[in-house]
Prior knowledge:
This protein is α/β, with parallel strands linked by helices. The chain has helices spanning about 5-25, 40-55, 70-75, 95-115, 155-160, 185-195, 225-235, 240-255, 270-275; strands at about 30-35, 60-65, 85, 90, 120-125, 135, 145-150, 165-170, 170-175, 180, 200-205, 220-225, 260-265, 280-285. The chain is globular, with a radius of gyration of 19 Å.
Amino acid sequence: MSSGISNFERAEVLTEALPYIKRYNGKIVVIKYGGSAMTSDSLKMQVMEDIVLLWLIGVKVVLVHGGGPEINEMMDKLGKEAVFVDGLRVTDKETVDIVQMVLAGKINKNLVNLLETKGGRAMGISGMDGRLIEAKQKDERLGYVGEITKINIGPVMDLLEKGYIPVISTVGSDAEGNAYNVNGDTAAANIAGALGAERLIMMTDIAGILRNREDPSSLISEISVSDAAGLYASGVISGGMIPKVECCIEAINRGVKNVIIMDGRVPHSILMELLTDEGAGTMVSGIHGSERT
């Protein structure tokens, strides 16, 4: 079925992408994947295709994933009621077992399988493998919710050096062997920092940072770390965007060059960000006035 695009136009698109392909070849890009972008099968397939395309042109992609909706679904099936304290899920022993089963088992292996069927080479690991994510209890009221104490990045580097796409579920552990549910955005920021990633892409449910939350056209294309304080004070960054921006700043402080907050529900948003002039979403950078590309 014709897409209405001529072969010449296709060739033009590929030629225009060449500078970006050269820029990212051999560089590490971490993608935090979750939320609504995971609930649509067709969108999930497009995200996997984008990741495999990047891998094929020489980008070292690391995929860090969440899975809140599927955890909720499994808890419902098992008759387990969700309890929250200050907006955070209370994770007792039974719940952390469910989290480990869903994240490190079902979701992780499904994503690996999808990447493989699209022509990629992927390997799934959890934060417990190779003690990748070491954690401690964040708050005793929350049970097995983990605060990251250390990232042991060796297992991820080994997979990248062998030519795999690492697919990471954010379950951590402590020295006593306790498993912890670790926030996916925080884990992605720490992992990207430990890798010295060229870019961290945070796929969310909104276009990025908006000056007016009711107006998608008010997207702010780029902010620096120093801009954030003023945007907090003015209320532009508020609610659920606050912890996401804090994770972006943490990643920058840990050595990531740039972080992108983008709408993961937009088809091929990853390719638009990395391989076009316009990009997608809001870039958070360490230095005011850095170039988008």
